[in-house]
């Protein structure tokens, strides 16, 4: 594990669901610079109120000059999902190359990837050498996502060698917490009475990971970085299905849950976390506890009164 106390840490894509709470947590000990387009001024205001220095960048055009070149660590959580192939590949692939070239003096670089890079294979458990494929292409609104992530990983590996930057690629499963996530979307669907799509090859199983565990594991992920690039699956220690977490939230909140089996949704992506546990350790937030906390933060009125 690296010691981030007093270090200059750049969080790229800081306005995103995962990166916002991460940057705020890291700012308790590190000097955090949040980098994004900041198309919404309220995002900048919120982060600056938390003591985070905000700088504007544009990865699509390779404009990263506002990021300090003397930063100690770079955490890239940015991802373009416009569904335009040219724009998304330019932003994700070209953008990360511009970023790593600009930050070549960093002590380590962390690229947040996704378990969406793995080929859909039912209930297969993927280690980091597993076959890659267009897992998310089945979702029309995310048709560029998996391919962009795979291409970005290749660019990151090349840049790590070219600029001699110790690098970790962390393939994130399902992040969630007070700031949202896929389970939070499911909660809103349940409130609206909408059926929850699940794959016909039930159950639809992943490794949900709480935002607190994401922040806690950053020093270890950075410590694992190497110029040859260290690739790790990144998720909660307990595999949990969509059916399980929706049923739990339904029971917790007194909501009915309707599932809609379909082939037009992503398949299960279960991963082998042995390498993560060996290098970084296990997650510590039990999924039920984390889901309850998420509900309490986003819809406290749904929980029974404890008074």
Automatic annotation (TrEMBL):
Which Pfam family, giving just one, matches this sequence? Answer: Epimerase
Q: Where do the NAD-dependent epimerase/dehydratase domain residues begin and end?
A: 9-216
Q: Which Gene3D superfamilies match?
A: NAD(P)-binding Rossmann-like Domain (3.40.50.720)
Concerning its family, UniProt says: Belongs to the NAD(P)-dependent epimerase/dehydratase family.
The protein's name in its UniProt record? Unannotated protein
Question: Mind giving the lineage of the organism this protein is from?
Answer: unclassified sequences, metagenomes, ecological metagenomes
